[in-house]
Amino acid sequence: KKPSSAGSILSLEKFSLPLIGHMPVTSQMNILGTIALLLVALTALMVFLDATARSQSATYVTVAAQMQYHTQRLAKAAGLAARGQPTAFPQVQDSRDEFASYLKILQEGGFAFGVDVPSAATTEELKSRLDELAQRWPESSKSASAILAARNDLVALAQNIAQVRVGAEEMAAGSQELTSL
Q: 116: which strand partners?
């Protein structure tokens, strides 16, 4: 059975809010409006903090992926540069510099991919891994720098080896001709 509209109006008149029900309706509305605004502001703050944390986490993942890429690129380019291939030297320099920059960002914090991030060393495990990487990096950087410093010599050596190969092939062809005569 449905209650009559007069009965529901009576039950609403008897209802009062806890703590503020004794106040006038305008005061109750002001208090409830203030609480609603505080809750909206709190929600906005939580959304902002969550977005910031997610953005920083995504940036750390991107930095780590870029470091892995530059490690592989540095290894490949260093091998080619050591054989005197001129196109490999800019890759060696770029990957060396980028890796060092990303390592510094992870250790100290900084600006990467449009996001300002704090240091990634938030736990002891992360700090120890970054410290270990920082201890090993100078030797790799020094090796890359040595290859870059020897660029002219390595390119000249590669050209000399190519000339020797051409000369050796010509001598082999001439030797075969003499043998057949």
A: 111
Query: How much is the pLDDT for 4?
Result: 54
Q: Which residues of 47-60 are buried (b: 16+ CB within 10 A; e: fewer)?
A: eeeeeeeeebeebb
Are the beta carbons of 107 and 134 closer than 8 angstroms?
A: yes
Token pair belonging to 73 = 């690129």
**H or E element, residue 1:** none
Length in residues, the chain: 181
- pLDDT tens digits along 96-112: 999 999 999 999 999 99
Cα separation, 136 vs 130, in Å, equals: 10
**What contacts 107, CB < 8 A, 6 or more positions away?**
119, 120, 121, 130, 134
Contact between 110 and 59 (Cβ < 8 Å): no
Tell me the C-alpha distance between 130 and 106, whole Å: 8
Distance in angstroms (rounded) separating the CA atoms of residues 119 and 134: 14
pTM: 0.73
> Where do runs of H (alpha helix) occur along the chain?
5-14, 25-82, 88-108, 124-149, 151-180
The more confidently predicted of residues 174 and 84 is 84
Count CB neighbours of 44 within 10 A.
10
